[in-house]
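Tutorial handout. Part one gives the primary structure; part two gives the three-dimensional structure as tokens.
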Amino acid sequence: PDERVAFVLEDAAPVVVVTTGELSERFDGGGVVAVVVDVEDPGLSRQPTTAFSYPDADQTAYVIYTSGTTGTPKGVAVTHRGMADLVATHLQRLTAPGRPATVTVRADEHVWTLFHSYAFDFAVWEMWGALLHGGRLIVVPEEVVYSPSDFHDLLVDEQVTVLTQTPSALARLSPDGLASVAVLLVGGEACPAELVERWAPGRAMINAYGPTECTVYVSMSKPLTPDAAVPIGGAGSGTGLFVLDSGLCRVPVGVVGELYVAGRGLARGYVRRAGLTASRFVACPYGPGGSRMYRS
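Part two.
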């Protein structure tokens, strides 16, 4: 919506917007420079290239906004370190020895789909999970995203091996003919047992959990099996998960507490919201001096 675009432009204050000709007029009068790129222009191949300098790992890689369902959307500043740790840690967990026999494809031979909107951090996992390991990334056209039958055909035609879906989207798909999908990652909402019964046989079906403030995922389950619980799993090697009481003391097993997340995947905080950042990203008593944890 125009109101959401205007809000993000004012809140994030970008220097430049990269867009297409058909969308460029949406930024007229927005006080931002719009650079139009036509990816079909053959002249692009004749343009000079300039090598990028390597950013510091703790610099911001991207700002992504929360949905705003509980108030004003908040811009979350995520670091390069968080992105690198996400892909290195969790992709290794998906393809490490000991996984089901179906997961035998090397990381650089995997075929991924870019199914989700850039406004949803699943897209970060999909893009960089593939590209940082030399895999192949299938950009799913928007009209195909909204057609389960067309999307199913694309998965078959492209022999996709790594598929990421929310449970509600997965429920609209049929597993028939999708033997190529060796790794199925679900997240974003609770996964019903019925979906596990339909999809887990013959592949590694993983349930993942993570808030926007912690670089997509902080935990992944072991491969799910039918007729068993669907947990959020354990933390990756660079992440700490703590269930704490109101005094930040660990609670015993079986006692209700709040989940806190620490480690390399934590975002820098909320853009231009220092007070809110301080209240949600608090000092971590279980890590080295100066470390923080996120109140989920």
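Part three, for discussion. The two ends are 28 Å apart (CA to CA). The CA atoms of residues 65 and 74 lie 5 Å apart.
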